[in-house]
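Worked example

This section walks through a single chain of length 247. The input is the sequence exactly as stored; nothing has been trimmed or padded.
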Amino acid sequence: MTGLIVAMRREARPLLLRVGRYAKGTIAGLACWRFKLPGRDCILVHCGIGLERARAAAAALMEEANPSVLISFGVSGGVEEDLQVGDVVAAESAVLLESGHGVLSLSTLPPSAFQAAETSVSMRGARLYRGSVVTTRGAKVRPDQVKDLLHPVLDMETYGIAQAAAGRVIPLLSLRGLSDSVREPLPFDLAALSDSDHNFRAEKLLLQVLRHPGLLRRLPRLQENTRRAEENVAAAVTAVLSSPAAS
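Given that input, the structure is written out below as tokens.
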């Protein structure tokens, strides 16, 4: 059994479209989708945004399905010039920039699985890198904070999933597609759009738009960049799932 985790439902859609047939269900109150690929049973869980939600969802998934491997995937932000919107990073470490800068090792994609994912991503006009994922609570990260990391990207969940996986000694793969970059940054402060429990609040985005009407001109571009990142990472995950070496 392969367990997969996404923070947002929209991140699951491109993969489910590629799979075609799946069964909907729930695990510990969380939406999930079960599907089969040649030689592989899979279950995909939607965890919600934030480290704590991701950690709890991973624990529930492992308790319910006892997967042999976990895959965390979705969109992320880049903090170095080399990474562009649409590129995909296969993270080999998860970093938390608080409480003493915690670092957890992630599983590495075998060469054949990496090559398959790389080919799939390159066919979409993007690149696949090995790198690191830095989990934040929505706060901005300065380049000097991650200068020693290989191709760092930002998310809000992977470190929590890595904590849960380490507790059960289950390998975790992480694939992140870039929806924003140094050249095309987010047009708003992500932390300011979340509540104290790190839930995204649409009304806060509306308030920012009302205060700064110029944001409206930038939102369609962000939407397109996010869609591209979701499609590219789904292509990479599909290639990995189709590779026996990633089992």
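What to look for: The first strand starts at residue 2 and ends at 6.
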